[in-house]
What does this fold into?
Amino acid sequence: MQRPTTGTAERVSTAERQRGSALEVFLSFLKLGVSSFGGPVAHIGYFHSEFVLRRRWLDEQAYADLVALCQFLPGPASSQVGFSIGLLRAGYLGGLAAWTAFTLPSAILMLLFAYGAGALTGPTGIALLHGLKLVAVAIVAQAVWSMARKLTPDRERVSIAVVAALIILLSSSSVAQIIAIALGAVLGLLLCRTSATSAMGGKLNFPVSPRAGWAALTLFLLLLVALPMLRALTHQPGVALFEAFYRSGALVFGGGHVVLPLLREAFVTPGWVTDDAFLSGYGAAQAAPGPLFTFAAYLGAVAHTPLHGITGAALGLIGIFLPGVLILLAALPFWESLRQRTQARSMMAGVNAAVVGLLGAALYSPAWTSSVRTPIDFGLVLVAFVLLTAWRAAPLLVVLVSALGALAVSALTPAQAAERLAPTRIDHAFLIIMENQTDTDLLGDPTRPS
It folds into this structure.
């Protein structure tokens, strides 16, 4: 009997990796939902560690291609990557399970904060938060190290990565990330033609048909156009609230912090939420694990509209995440055939190198600059990095070690800890939370969650 070729074996191996259950996906992402601190870039690192290195649900190249696609699309990139991994593993139910498990813990925390459960306060709480920031540095560093070894093996792609990193580091524009990735695609087409023949990873067999893709795109555009018209015609508070969230989620590229100006315009300007309440919720979202887009649950809960509380939070979550999922489903049926073409693979080689540069820039700012302030901080990051890379420790264990380490340092050296934990510009919004804990009526309406 003839033995399968290497290419066939790779295809079989990839297909086997794709089999799984929605429950398996849910439990895997739930663990990340309660431990993935550090924002969207750190989430990419957590996913890489869990699903590429540890579980091997997809290979390095396929993961990098998937990340590059989600970076191009509007919506929360890390949540789109997570949804795609669940979809690849266990179909539509797997995608839903991945999104639910990764989003739910943070959404619950934001809802509790809206109802006055509060956030981490005092020296102990701030030290714990700082430890969680430090582990995010190690997670991102591991992702940069692992992906750089495989995706930038030659001087052309190393150069593309450096150019992309410089664009991000030297620009404060919200479109800098898209510019860096687009430039990476152009440079890849020009410089990476010889490397494209070996750049193909395992097949990404998403269970989404072209018809389903076109239907998702149609629904995405229909809602984007029809919801503002329906809002103007009906003046229904539920429609207005959902439209504000949907518009914010559909028009943001890069996700995370980029969506904040859109949300502020949608909620603070019409008087639904005060500036102080908005900033307090933003600070709480930074302190919570999981996607920053769960800030929408808080805004929906405290919005000064007839629909608020749990109903408003549910509308917020669905409204802000739905456009990103729809546009992702619209792109996935055509993504595999596109990445098979030689020119497209050359462009993807450049894009993947640019993604490494983006992660490298994010490793410095905001991950490093907002967290590593003393030699002790660097030591904690180094321990976490060694646990991840040399000992192959699970990210959840590394999170616990880093958090306990920061608490121990704070208890043993209170004076140095106070200096180390002095507020920075990035911590300002979180400190506003603590100032607002004494407010009995966040919005001037005692019937609403505060």
In short: The chain is about 75% helix and 0% strand. Confidence is low (pLDDT under 50) at residues 1-16, 423-450. Residues 228-326 form one domain.
